[in-house]
Design goal:
It is a single chain. A hairpin with a 6-residue loop joins strand 2 and strand 3. Strands 1, 2, 3, 4, 5, 6, 7, 8 and 9 form a nine-stranded mixed β-sheet that branches. The chain has a two-stranded antiparallel sheet with strand order 10-11. The chain has a single domain, classed as Nucleoside Triphosphate Pyrophosphohydrolase, CATH 3.90.79. It contains four helices and eleven strands, in the order αβββββαββββαββα. The chain is 19% helix and 29% strand. It starts with 11 loop residues before the first helix and ends with a helix. The model has no long low-confidence stretch (mean pLDDT 91). It is α+β, with helices and mostly antiparallel strands.
Length: 221
């Protein structure tokens, strides 16, 4: 694994300079056209195995990859889901969810869902680009919306849905030495996935896969 370049700075100015030509500037067609194949998925590390979602009817969704403008370096805003939820209980996730008919687009959906889940008002959030569309095993076609988040906000975890809201240094998440390969038995096969444990937080699965996509686009030369 290539070590992190010690000369890299993870402040807002450096990130924005890189984002101008490394992030997607427009919503990719694959995020909304369910007939198209998503560039990234839960099966990224399992190309030799049968896809886990081939019979699913993907549902469009959007999440917010919120980069909080902390000093001296950026952090990433994440949530911990409550343990009693029927889907992904207790897991670390980006705020977000399915795109509703009333949403103007994926950006509007990500902002709405983030405000509902965390209380983060959209006046603190400035979208700056997109990652690749990501297909989950559970049938969602997720568009990660990358955004700068200005400090000064107040958070309110959604009762019954969000157990905690926390931040992780972008430097840690973009260091490839922290990108671990874990595996679990599923449908008769060992399937590998990305994991980025951070203290007591176990960041894995789709969330870790999208963070790996952020690394691939922004920092992998």
């Amino acid at each position: 694994m290539t070590p992190l370049d010690p000369e890299l700075r993870f402040d807002a100015d450096e990130f924005m300079a890189r984002a101008s030509d490394r992030l997607l500037a427009k919503i990719p067609a694959e995020a909304m056209d369910m007939r198209a194949e998503a560039p990234r998925s839960d099966d990224d590390l399992n190309p030799h195995l049968r896809p886990t979602f081939e019979v699913s009817d993907p549902r469009p969704a959007a999440v917010l990859v919120g980069l909080v403008r902390r000093e001296p370096e950026l952090t990433v805003l994440l949530t911990q889901r409550t343990e009693h939820l029927p889907s992904h209980p207790g897991q670390v996730a980006f705020p977000g969810g399915k795109i509703d008919e009333d949403d103007a687009d994926a950006v509007a959906a990500a902002l709405r869902e983030t405000e509902e889940e965390t209380g983060l008002l959209r006046c603190f959030v400035t979208p700056v680009g997109f990652l690749d569309a990501y297909q989950t095993r559970t049938g969602y076609r997720v568009l990660p919306v990358v955004a700068m988040v200005e400090p000064g906000f107040e958070l309110r975890p959604e009762d019954g849905e969000v157990a905690d809201i926390f931040e992780v240094p972008l430097r840690f998440l973009m260091n490839p030495t922290n990108h671990q390969y874990h595996s679990r038995r599923w449908q008769g096969s060992n399937r590998r996935f990305y994991a980025m444990p951070y203290g007591e937080r176990y960041i894995w699965g789709a969330t870790a896969g999208m963070l790996r996509n952020l690394y691939d686009r922004m920092y992998r030369d």
